[in-house]
Description:
209 residues, alpha/beta, five-stranded mixed beta sheet, 10 strands, 42% helix, elongated
Amino acid sequence: QGYNPVSFHFLMLTGVETVLVYMGIGGVLLFLMKKRTTALLTGLCAWCLLTASLCRDEWGRLQQRRLVVYSMSHANRMEIVNGQQYAGVHTDTGNVKKTDYAVRPAHTGWRAWQKDSTTSNEIYMIGGKTVLVLNEDIYSNSHFPVDYLVINFTGEPDAVKLNKIFSPGMMVIGNNYTRKEQDKFVRVCGAAGLKVHAIERDGAFVAGG
């Protein structure tokens, strides 16, 4: 494993692709052992189909763009996944193993194995949707509608005020709040007619695809 390229550590095959691998191996082995031309043709067809499928997967991954708020105990971790790269938007834990345990399955599934520099942006366009990461409470009366509003500061956010300013399609509250605080925020949002995704209750949040 130490000699494998880094990208191989994030290689993932679908069920169909796995079947094609075994068909390709079996076809070539039958040809070598039994000299059956049909087996060779079957094996070569399987390899061709596998190559086409992997190219399609790779194209899809190169087009992907996501904002992810991970589910981590008592800590926040947000990333932008762009193609095969990922960049940290925010993290408030120094526990590297804890962070790696939370993010590695996503990096593997999306083959986002190349680390990019950390981004400090607050507004992102993801899949035609506007995502705002609110890093501090706001006291403006202006109106700036967004599709997703990620609450990324501690304190007691005013759901009514935030709804008036941003009119979000959904609010997201991460683990910089305790479970009790998240539950309270969910109730307040519900009373204000707002959709809310609480990480502690609903799991990781993913915007885009």
